[in-house]
Amino acid sequence: MSLAGRTLLMSGGSRGIGLAIAVAAARHGANVILLAKTDAPDPRLSGTIHTAAAEIEAAGGSALAVVGDVRDEASVQRAVERGAERFGGIDIVVNNASALAVDGTDTLSMKRFDLMADIQLRGTYLLTSKALPHLRQGTDPHILSLSPPLNLSPAWLGAHPAYTMAKYGMTLLTLGWAAEFADHGVAANCLWPETYIATDAVKNILGGEAAIERSRSPEIVADAAVAILQRPANECTGNTFIDAEVLRDAGVTDLSRYGGTGELRYDIFVDPPHDPSPGERARRETHEEPPC
Fold this sequence. Notes:
The chain has 292 residues and is an alpha/beta fold.
């Protein structure tokens, strides 16, 4: 399905992965509604909702910037109503807005806990539920949440339980919608980076310039998102996708264009591949089942 003429509603999107997805969709002729708080420049962050809208327009799409908070019901309702009025409907919802704090339980403040829960859970639920009447009438409607696979390894469950709960909550909501709306033709999928992505969050929270050097560019997530959103909704739903796997499935075998000058750092919740043990290798070669 072409994205030309279809309308995408996104939370956040002033910078980083969200902006890259919006610009990539615009190159394919999509309309983009942005709901974000960044009305004025912030010295700690790159871009505002207005500079993002300008980039979308420059890429060939149409943009509507709605200043507001995804946690606020009135803001979300306003973005949905204004976007549907301007573009005639809403075909795609991208749950992009997120807060990141990887502190442990003994150091994380309740303010940060509430922020993550409110943006990731309440915001994702609000944006999707308010847009749902338009999605049901939309062209090949999709819900796409930037949230991870449900990796229940104790290493991840114990690393930062509050952040894990907030991001896994986005995934559970999205997989729930895939089941709930299956008979309505509304697809719901999750997308997550295989590696760190060069964003302000990675630079400011996860390791500075050293982390950026081990990161791919946001365009890898954007290209994967476009590939998913172009798939028929009735054939592509209920998945937790990894960006690199989506592109490899689409025939993109050389990912070097997406950067990373050092050894790439696998993202949170993504286990790096490992060399199989001799026993595992033998079982794979003989197609034997592993012992219980």
